[in-house]
Amino acid sequence: MKKLLFIVLLLLCLIAVPYKGIGAEEIVQADLVIEYVRVFTMDKANEEAEAVAVKNGKFVYVGDREGVQAYKGPQTRVMYMDNRLMLPGFIDGHNAAYLKAEKMFWLDLSSFSTFEEYEKAIFSYRAQHPQLKQLCAVGWNQKVTEEAWGKSGKTPRDLIDQLVHDIPFVAFSAHRDELWVNSKTLEISGLDHIEHGLTETGEASGIIPGQFTDMVVQVLPQPDFSVEQYKKALIKYQEDAARYGITAAFVPLGNHSENVLKAFDELDRKNLLTMTYELGIYVDPLKDLDQIELFKEWREIYQGKNYSVQTAKMNYTENAVWEKEKFLDMLDLLDREGFRIHVEAEKELHMIFEGFEYARVRNGKKNFKHVISHMPIVTNDDLTNFRKFRIIPSVQPAIFHQSIDAGKEDELKNWHRMKSYFEKGLPVSSFSNYPDGELNPLYGIETGMTRLHWNDEKSQKPLWPEESATLKQMLRSYTIYAARQIGWEAQLGKIRVGMQADFIILDKNIFRVPPGEISEAKVILTYFKGKETYRDESEMGGQ
Q: What predicted TM-score, i.e. pTM, was given to this entire model?
């Protein structure tokens, strides 16, 4: 009798406790409930769902429609998505958002293809801005200047002096690896008598290679954008990013610009950051190890609700000239001081791995904290070293259709890896390389799968299709693995109870279309911390 009474009481207790379902917190009145939606969560414990609830910027329920009903209240906004696809917000692993300022406040030459067009654009720009103390441009195509040089016999310096001789002129190449400058700029920079940037005859050509571009810019009358200009640029960038479902990004700085940090901080304090950012402080190869003291100061000062500064960004490229000992010591000291190190690499990777081994011997192992990005060629030995030193590879999938000149099969095996990273168990992240690359992550997702340009005819031969990744793998690289790369994996990258409510809705289910049509999908809703940041009115109607 006592046993029967115990069982009855136990059943009554269970009935009295509300059922919370899979992936639910204590039942509360949610701010937002979304149902009739196909949710791909990126959470292996609960990979798919059909309803979510959001409260105070976090997911409080992820599960089925029946379970979400308990979270509705008089003040809850309820949305029905007609079984459209919901994904975590995309995370861009390498994105120079602040360079939006160049497009907004400098002359943009990227749409012009002849020197005559350059001439008209420069004269028109000066007429519109008669009080300029300097003229800065972006999107310069070196081939345009080279062709004019070949036709006229005049150096790029002479050509631009004809157009701008009274104030400093600088134009960044499309990939920011060279500067086109006039005599006024060379004069104030002190580079007019050194061997770099000279023609074979010894006369300054007006072309400054990448390792000296920052030195030149720093001597301009206005070497940096103002804090207000950066703030306007970041707000405009966020509008563009939200259209493509981007809710977080790693933003590496190109120089020691505190104005950028101040802009992020002021926007964050005013709740105007509508994305999460990890900022990477630029490590200057021409400066000594003591620059790290400045990085430590900035790391203490610049930390906010929606941004952090925990990363040091090193370039190890053709335009970043490092002495070997200095490179090893810099990487070692940054690691010892607790920075997340992000190395941009265009060369062979053996020296970078040697640097991480040098640091590991002195400071101990790190578990997938540091990052190497931009590496076009990765050998099997490199893959082993990524795993050995627990380094995150970061790649730009939207260019995976591009081949090397030689095009030999044995070289293609090492060219633009993707599938190999997953097979090696590496948390590979993906990025846009904005503004030099396409911002839309769906382009990268498609090309990572097809190895074709998204506008190519489908009959084209894909570039080394053996490295094609699956859709789930590509999505991981833009969500959970990218979150790990930027150090925000505890809050971002999954649709899971307790995590930040960053998510997007697509107009079509990309799991049900051919890979070559993924880039045709559109983001129709973007949410950051449970707040709408983008809406496609043509698709959403009155919802």
A: 0.91
